[in-house]
Each structure stands twice: as structure tokens, then as C-alpha cells.
Amino acid sequence: MHSAVVTGGESGIGRACALALARAGHPVALTYHTDEAAAAAVVAEIEQAGGRALACRTDVADEAAVDALFAEAEAAFGPVRLLVNSAGVNMRGTPIAEMPLKQFQGVLGADLVGPFLTCRRFVRGLGAGGGGRIVNVSSIHERAPRAGGADYDSAKGGLAQLTATLALELAPQRIAVNAVAPGMILTPMNQSALDDPTELRRKEAAIPWGRAGTPEEVAGLILFLLSPAADYLTGATVTIDGGLSLTVAQGA
Fold first, then answer.
1. Residue 251: CB partners within 8 Å, gap ≥ 6?
2. What residues act catalytically?
3. Which residues pair with 238 in a beta bridge?
4. pLDDT band (50, 70, 90) for residue 187
């Protein structure tokens, strides 16, 4: 089974992907930023089920840290042929007039520079032989902006173009590059809705399907995109949002 790197694998969609890949038999190197205990718990769950995993503390916006991550994964599991870029930070609702440059750069670092660095190191690690699959976790906000999201929306819009560009560039090496664009998913990025049933009901009322999604549903889609069944699929962004992004321009 091919080995995999999953960034942001300690929680949310990344955690669900790491567990799904391990259940499918893939050794997994997962990254975390600060929550070592959560990452260790994911590794323990995988190992208790008979899988192989390791956790690496990684700032995905740091070139040396990304190089070290892949070196450790390759030493433990051999060439990395599957990559899931799930690490990222959310918007804070800050109007642009009040947004510090450091905040804007920080979101771009995690959500766009990070995938650039991991994709580049992934391709370098495969060399001329090629043959691999990349899935970037984007957002419906790559094309459906929200006020107060100049940082996040810009990063995810850039990630969409990074995905498409790399798909074109890497196709001759048989490296497929796709993305998923989730809507509202019940992860720590939506912690306030998880903690407040009233907020959750209000937000779910705006979703045509009538509910928020789960990390496991997104992971199932990503596992398909990483599988041989998706061999002819590259350069696509697959939306998984219960129809939320279709409601643009409704009601007025």
C-alpha cells in the first residue's frame, strides 16, 4: 500500500482522512501544529487497529519543516505517493480596514503557502518516476466570498488555481491533483455551532440538505479521489456542501 502524508491530521477533516487511509491499509504520516496529545491519540488509534502511523509537529508554511516531515515519512514508510493538504486556519471576520498584515500573511501561509510547499516536496520525492495523487482541502469560499474573509477567501481562491495548475503540469508524470470544497462541516472550525444548538439550527436552516456535513463524509470523498477508481480524474474541485453554495442570489 502507498504511504500517505496528511497535514492537519490531528483534528477535523485531516483526522478523518488519516483514519480512513489507515483503515484502507496505507501507512500515514500526519502533521499537527500545537496539539501533540490529539495527534498522538490519532496515531494510537491507528496502531491499535493494526495500522502504521507517525505524527510530526510541522509548520506547513516553513520550508525546512516540510522537508523534515517528508524525510521522516520516507524513512519510515518509503516513497510518499498520497498527499492530503488539510492543515489550515479559518477567517476571523475582520474587515480589511482593520486587518493586520500579519493576520493576512498568516492565513495565506497556512492555507496556500503550505500546500505549495508540501506539493513541491511531494513531487521532488517521487522524482522522474512520478505516479501519485494529491488532494487539497479548499472551501466553497474559494468562489463564494464572505465579508470579513479577505484573508481566507484569497487563500482558498489561490488554492483553486494552484490545484488546477499543478494538475496540468503534473499529468505527464501521472500525478493527479484534485481538491474538495466543503461547506459547513462539523469540525473545530465550527466549534461555536457545535457548542450552541441554537446557532447550529440557524446555520443548518440555510443549507438546502438541512444539515451540516461530517468530517467522515469529506474523508470518504477524499479517499475516492486518492484511489485507483479516480485514475482519470485530475484538475477538479469537488464541492461537498449539501447545496449551500447553490443558494447564492436566492431570496432577493
1. none
2. 152
3. 180
4. confident
